[in-house]
Amino acid sequence: MQNWIKFLTLFLSSFLFAQQTTFKFDFGTDRTENGFIPITSTSKFDKKIGYGFMDISGLKSVDNGGNALTGDFITSDKPFYFSVAIPEGNYNITINLGDSKGASETTVRVENRRLMLNDIKTKQGEIVEKQISVHVKDSIIRNQNGEKIGIIKLKPRETKYLHWDNLLTIEFNDKTPKVSSVVIQPNPTAKTIYITGDSTVVDAQYEPWASWGQMFPYFFVPNEVVIANYAESGETLKAFEDRHRIDKIWNKINPGDYLFIQFGHNDQKAGNSIKSGYKKRLKEWIGKAKQLGAIPVLVTSMNRRVFDESNKIVNTLDDFPDAMREIAKEENVYLIDLNAMSETLFEAMGPENSKKAFVYYPANSYPNQPTVLADDTHFNTYGAYELAKCVVKSIVDQNLPLKKYISKNYKTFNPNKPDDIDRFHWPESIFMESLKPDGN
Predict the structure, then answer these.
(1) Which element (helix H / strand E) includes 258?
(2) Is pTM, for the whole model, over 0.90?
(3) Considering only CA atoms, which of 411, 418, 351 is closest in space to residue 385?
(4) In which element (H, E) is residue 350 found?
(5) What is the DSSP-derived secondary structure letter of residue 277?
(6) d(CA 308, CA 290)
(7) What is the C-alpha radius of gyration for the chain, rounded to an integer number of angstroms?
(8) How is residue 57 annotated by DSSP?
């Protein structure tokens, strides 16, 4: 009888948890704040209960006494990942970081290394409360009644991505990450910026690859704006349609939301006609976004790292950037000319130093990498961060309505004077792969 009661209790608690959209977790020991779920160093993720750490090795519970919520915490000497089974949507996440008897240093990312909090340092005895806003997605396309009407055709490699696994995963990283609580609440009012594009935009899961899309959330005020990155490596405008990625967005986007569109690298290689294919689809997307009350923003594709004998960037994208500029004028929509800004940025870096922004690494720098990595299209985390700042700069300089949502994390930026790479902060995640993303 006792076993049956225990089973029934576990089943009911699991069922109720699965229906929840608000969650309160007290990290540390079994000494727990009222109304919070205790999370200790042994709380390994369990599908039955719907939450826990991806890996508990190296985790340490510390209890300093005092306040039940902030007097204890979880820490580790390596990155650790906390996952929660949660319905797709926009969420605010409130996190308490610090140590009532010591100092801490924490960087927070979500899903596929999407940057949220960078190098948050607390002094001895200091506890800080930080908020981030996150978009959680799945591959199912639903109508307004929530009924399934389709599905995104994911590529095989996408099945391993953290942003398609029906979980919200939070990465805690840095020298001394110390987490005492995590509260997750729905955010139904935030503007959503939907991003479409290819491997130069995607939330890349594996070090050393990165894109501006996954750095973008760091520069926005939480609660007001949420970034929803639907880009994927190797995609063209046509492929984005064929795999129903854009259909997913059309069924989710709301009036006042934004649709960022950056394609060109793969459209060029696919032999798509600028006139009958590329421009036609751009116009159709712009028209559909406007029809739904959303705000389209065109982003020209950044340059590849190809220099001429005078150390000037060579245009390898044919007429695709110009075609997008023309469409922006014809359709009277916002344009972020990342193509022009990247030319300035890369020329300021120069042929040799610009390698530090791309995936250029000696053999054996990463697992299963017997040969050198030398990629003139795809960026590392530093390059992706610099390009994200270019996009934000354009928003600010053009006085786009989104300007009022830019956070204090963005100070100012001049592509003629790139940030010093030695001052760029990025503790690497545990996910690493030398395989080049789709597309070029």
Answers:
(1) strand 258-261
(2) yes
(3) 418
(4) helix 338-353
(5) I
(6) 41
(7) 22
(8) T
